[in-house]
Amino acid sequence: MITNDKGIVELKHFILREICRLAWAGEMTPDNCEKIVYQVSPGPKPSYRCCVYKEREIVRGRIRLARGESPDINYETKNVVAVIPAACDDCPIQDFFVSDICRFCLGKACLNSCRFGAITPGDTKMKIDPNKCKSCGACAKACPYGAIIHQERPCKKACPAGAISYNDAGVCLIDEEKCIHCGHCIHSCPFGAIGSKIFAVDVIRSIQAGKRVVAMCAPATEGQFGDKVGMAAIRAALKKIGFADMVEVGLGGDMTAAYEAIEWMEAKKEGRKMTTSCCPAFISMLRHHFPAQFEQNKSTTVSPMVAVSRYLKSLDPDCVTVFIGPCIAKKGETLNEMIADRPDYALTYGEIVAMLDSRGVTVEPVEEDYQESSLFGKKFAGSGGVAGAVMEVMKELGEDTSDISLLTCAGGDECKKALLLLKAGRLKEDFIEGMICPGGCVGGPSKHQAENLVLKARGELLAKADDRKILENLEHYPMDRFSMQRDGVIRPETNPLRFKKSEE
User: Fold this and answer.
1) Can you name the residues that pair with 348 across neighbouring β-strands?
2) What distance in Å separates the CA atoms of residue 252 and residue 169, rounded to the nearest whole number?
3) Rounded to whole angstroms, what are the CA distances from 499 to 72, 396, 398, 484?
4) Tens digit of pLDDT per residue, the chain (504 long)?
5) In 3D, which of 422, 421, 403, 415 has the Cα closest to residue 268?
6) How far apart are CA 268 and CA 290, in angstroms?
């Protein structure tokens, strides 16, 4: 994986791979887990932190995350994204600093602007008391020399939901009521202090128990492993380690687009604005930070991941469904009790590669072809892809889309701005496509390669896809056997295939 936090990713990968090996062998005892700790940090000198004792405690936290547990044994959290307290270190607590540019001027504009008594004269320059500073920034604006700088901690800066704060010791705290599970804080932390719970061990145990475990690969998968590795190659590798089968979630993109198109057509008639339902982090932002819009404007159609899981379980109620993609928020979606009949587990690309490595399996090109999605469903992974697919279904149903206005948002700030406009009643567009990750899912926090490499390889792979239509594709699936609504209720009147047949 190409990333700016290579050392952290390599450490995480090693620990998870070794945990998976223990799980496959049925040897995941406390003693064997502790052996991993000493493999990483044998001592007596530390390798990357101040002392071996701190290093070892950090590794223990990572092992707990790798087993799907809370990283701190003293604090149980239901949140998928969690902090390893021992790893959170050396970041300055305060946001504003007086630099050496300070001329210690007579006017003291900074001191006069502060309403909290946080600024006082030092020996050679002004100083800010972090215990009194409220990070309002008034002093920085007032300083005629620009000597006061704003330096925000990287995890807090990356969070689009304002969910991060700090305790008295400066350790990062995640507000579970605000967190949208986007995972942007994880790779922004230079100490690897933030991670997500990993459910690879649960998947391994399901396979060992003889259950039919089916993988569901996100549309963003094509291109992650190069231009020679398509969905068929991923499918073949997963079968080697015990998965019964794999289905591309682009098929779920077709399903979601079809049902969301019916909602959009109804909303258009009513003059009601709507948001898409694909990105779980965007939906979490709606739910936690814009509750009224969550109730009034959100699509009730399930995400492509949930759609494929329900389809698979309609065929085999006892199967175990496992999503694989670049998304941390999908883990939160599998645990969201507001979604009926949701999938069992979600893994990232790095996590599934660690599982493959633990069995000595690599992803290699195959001769076999595999396509279960239309090109529109595959394009769900990119910004604009969801709205494009919905509009395609509307056209297939004979709907005029020329007068529809769309707002495509990719990135936390863009999504937040759009929702603020919606809340204020100032949104000009008819529909919002919201994706919290810049560029869409292909730019997700757990992508396997740099985005430019993924996009290049992805373009070559998608060029080989056939030109099947969305509704034409869905005619091959039992859409009347499972619900496409978040509440799990089957509503035949919303089945888009009925609309298509009536048009014919």
Assistant:
1) 325
2) 45
3) 53, 10, 10, 16
4) 344 567 888 999 999 999 999 999 999 999 999 999 999 999 899 888 889 999 999 999 999 999 999 999 888 999 999 999 999 976 776 788 899 999 999 999 999 999 999 999 999 999 999 888 888 899 999 999 999 998 888 999 999 999 999 887 889 999 999 999 999 999 899 899 999 999 999 999 999 999 999 999 999 999 999 999 999 999 999 999 999 999 999 999 999 999 999 999 999 999 999 999 899 999 999 999 999 999 999 999 999 999 999 999 999 999 999 999 999 999 999 999 889 899 999 999 999 999 999 999 999 999 888 999 999 999 999 999 999 999 999 999 999 999 999 999 999 999 999 999 999 999 999 999 999 999 899 988 999 888 889 999 999 999 999 999 999 999 999 999 999 999 999 999 888 888 765 444
5) 403
6) 22
Query: How far, CA to CA in Å, does 481 sit from each of 231, 323, 344?
Result: 26, 21, 19
- Cα 441 to Cα 461: distance, rounded to the nearest angstrom: 17
Amino acid at residue number 130: P
Q: Cα(first)–Cα(last) distance of the chain, in Å?
A: 49
- Contact (CB, 8 A) for 263 and 299: yes
CA–CA separation, 372 and 281 (whole Å) = 26
- Whether residue 235 contacts residue 246, with contact meaning beta carbons closer than 8 Å, is answered with yes
Written as six digits, the tokens of 44 are 């007596």
Torsion of CA 416, 417, 423, 429, to 10 degrees: -120
For 117, phi and psi rounded to 5 degrees?
A: 65, 30
Exposure string over 427-442, b if 16+ CB within 10 A, otherwise e:
beebbbbbbbbbbbbb
> Whose CA is closest to 278, among 141, 172, 377, 175?
377
CB atoms within 10 A of CB 321: 25
Q: Using alpha carbons, select from 160, 161, 153, 151 the residue that is nearest to residue 189.
A: 153
Report whether 120 contacts 127 (CB < 8 A): yes
- Both tokens of residue 299? 């699509």
List the one residue out of 159, 153, 155, 154 whose CA is nearest residue 180: 159
Strands (E), 67-204: 81-83, 96-98, 119-121, 126-128, 148-150, 164-166, 172-174, 194-196
Question: Which stretch of DSSP H or E encloses residue 345?
Answer: strand 345-348
Cα-based torsion angle of the residue sequence 429, 433, 436, 440 in order, rounded to the nearest 10 degrees:
-130
- Alpha-carbon span 289 to 303, nearest angstrom: 20
Please state, in angstroms and rounded to a whole number, the distance separating the CA atoms of residues 98 and 92.
13
Annotate 54-87 with DSSP letters as a single string: HHHHHHHHHHHHHTTS-S-TT-----SEEE-GGG
Q: Which residue has the tokens 């602007």?
A: 113
Structure-block tokens of residue 268: 């258009």
